[in-house]
């Protein structure tokens, strides 16, 4: 065998998996059809739990040293009411970061290389190599090079939502939901922010976060049903959407747009069975969800962590990939369901009442931001007991206010 593990795809899921496996002493090759630094269609909030992992692995410093500003506070504007607070700390991290993918992915590739993994850029996998019903390697080529076969005990598909590896092994999909929304984002200079901003409206969500080079990223998500109209004049519709978000439209018009608008309706929601004989999937190749909740990078970092642990046991002869599958699904499912709901862009009455009930209660706002950042599972908050706590207390506060007003 040439390697213990070959990882196809070298961005968040792939480079991280390769790094963690190499740190465990395994012989790892990670390949990507592009060379780094390389951008991709993705905005780039890393939620607090993802930041905690980067910190634990000693990678946060590289992100910070590159001038990526931390975002500790979030202003969540739901129209009738604004929730303003700080993220609850999570395993030593208390901020989200929004590094450009050119920076983050290159830092992860460097970390994989430093850990001892072989890295081949500009290498496209074109085929899987099989033996007796088991994947035993890949066949691919460097740009202008000839085709080579490389063998490994396990091949990991970290090759994104349109994963070649997943199709080649016929990975079963489940819990699939229709595409609900498209996304469009760009970068401004001269649009300073002191906190992250999210605007939740019927029919759209807008997110504003600071990133590298003193730029501010402004992201818009709207229902897929409006995509054909939107694409006829992207800039006009994008700015009109920002006009519906407080003074954001005015601030964006006064600022300078530094990059093109990137727009995509390619936002599937699906799970894939993440393992089989000689293969495993990680990151978007395994579970992908709408970008509206900005969880994909954080999910990929978590799943790389889970997969690296499972693979090193598996390669020591302890079957562990079924447990990886269970742990991944347990971790991601509540946020997946929440995200698919968010991407429908029609906040219901319970959600709106919830915002009103928690708005002037800092501890509840912090808890809400914990859900938003993925530090707390959505179903730990949006369940009957929590609702009773929130609405019960809100009712008591209103009752007390009324009694005080009558007595005055
Ligand atoms: C509009 C938009 C905004 C988003 N915003 C956020 C956000 O703010 N925060 C967040 O957490 N997530 C966000 N996401 C999601 C995030 O981009 C993904 O979840 C994340 O990139 C998944 O990482 P990955 O490593 O699994 O896959 P990818 O980033 O897709 O990387 C896959 C890699 O595999 C390589 N590859 C594919 N096929 C082959 C092959 N045959 N041979 C060799 N290499 C191959 C590709 O070149 C690529 O580099 C957003 C997504 C979109 C669409």
UniProtKB/TrEMBL annotation:
Xref: InterPro entries: FAD-bd, FAD/NAD-bd_sf, Geranylgeranyl_reductase
Gene3D superfamilies: FAD/NAD(P)-binding domain
GO MF annotation list: FAD binding
Domain FAD-binding residues, every copy: 2-337
Domain of life: Bacteria
Signal peptide from the UniProt entry: none
Name of the protein: 2-polyprenyl-6-methoxyphenol hydroxylase-like FAD-dependent oxidoreductase
